[in-house]
Write a structure and sequence with these properties.
The chain is built from twelve helices and eight strands. The chain is of the alpha/beta class and 336 residues long. Helix 5 links the parallel strand 3 and strand 4. The N terminus is likely disordered.
Length: 336
């Protein structure tokens, strides 16, 4: 989301009165990116018209890298879900079986495209010697839950069913996502467990969007969630996704990972988040619940880091260490 906003040039607004105090809490290497984000705030509220304008102004996706190869395969529709295509990165049919990651892009449930992360997924496929499948899903508010989850689940089922012809080991499939994509990855892991559809070896949740109550019925400290994705935007994004107001007493079953009754039986999990990210409290709470449920869990909270910091400042020491941490988790899961 942050990268999209910076590239599309959302009209700057007046800087917050306490911007110096906000920036003082930011890792020095991340401050320039924070200044750019603060100068390009999200539209408020995130109405349907505002969302459409954001999508229309989004820049073309970055050009993919020369390798690994990206191949598109048809994904048939079923159960009211439209037919689509699925991008497979780095497949090597006919070779020794390798692990795979189903990756889900972010965007607050309302914007974003799988193509936006192709280059990053190519780098991941190369670094981890794995296949990456990009899940494309319908966006809110046009499609609310369960549509986006069903799109991701269909992609996961397709990957598992076609594993051998892609050169993928069906026992070593992980799910991963950032922000709203991390929320969908968490929903997907729960759905795969409950439906007994696909066994997962790992879930990598990067500053995941897990709880609709953050910013709606649950307040956060004033210095948290002020850079980029904020409390009002979170309430709007969740409301669009759920089809009911965020923080409602009743929400659709399976739509909010933080409201899931039991987390037992989920795959080993990495959760990473910045200490001043809007999602820090809900992500820590989710990690604590996973640990209490007996799920091997790696929680990493990055001091002075805001939402999307690793995309904004990928060469910072904080981002390098953060990326190394989740990649280590995947390598460990793939080595089993």
């Amino acid at each position: 989301m942050q990268r999209i906003l910076l590239e599309m040039g959302v009209a700057p607004a007046a800087a917050p009165v306490d911007s110096d105090l906000i920036l003082a809490r930011v890792d020095p290497e991340l401050r320039e990116g924070a200044r750019q984000i603060l100068a390009h705030p999200l539209p408020a509220p995130l109405t349907s018209a505002a969302v459409q304008a954001m999508r229309a102004a989004a820049p073309p996706p970055a050009a993919p890298l020369p390798a690994p190869e990206i191949v598109h395969h048809p994904l048939p529709g079923a159960g009211g879900r439209p037919a689509s295509s699925i991008a497979v990165i780095g497949a090597r049919p006919g070779t020794a079986l390798r692990p795979a990651v189903l990756h889900i892009h972010g965007g607050g449930f309302v914007v974003g495209r799988a193509q936006d992360t192709y280059a990053a997924s190519q780098r991941m496929a190369d670094a981890l010697d794995c296949v990456v499948v990009e899940a494309e899903y319908r966006l809110a508010p046009e499609t609310s839950f369960p549509g986006p989850l069903e799109d991701c689940h269909a992609a996961l089922v397709w990957l598992h069913a076609n594993a051998l012809r892609l050169g993928v080991d069906p026992r070593r499939i992980a799910v991963m996502g950032e922000s709203a994509g991390g929320g969908l990855a968490a929903m997907l892991a729960i759905a795969a467990r409950d439906r007994r559809s696909v066994p997962l070896c790992c879930q990598i949740l990067i500053y995941p969007m897990l709880d609709d109550r953050t910013g709606s019925t649950r307040a956060v400290p004033p210095f948290i969630g002020t850079i980029g994705w904020n409390a009002p935007s979170n309430a709007d994004g969740w409301s669009a996704f759920l089809g009911v107001p965020a923080g409602s007493a009743q929400v659709p079953a399976g739509a909010v990972p933080a409201r899931t009754t039991s987390l037992a039986g989920l795959p080993p999990t990495f959760i990473g988040v910045g200490a001043i990210d809007l999602f820090v409290d809900e992500d820590i709470a989710y990690a604590q619940r996973l640990i209490a449920a007996g799920v091997p869990t790696n929680l990493r909270v990055v001091p002075g880091a805001y939402h999307g910091f690793d995309f904004i400042a990928p060469r910072s020491q904080a981002s390098i260490a953060f990326t190394a941490a989740w990649q280590h988790m995947l390598r460990t899961a793939f080595a089993v």
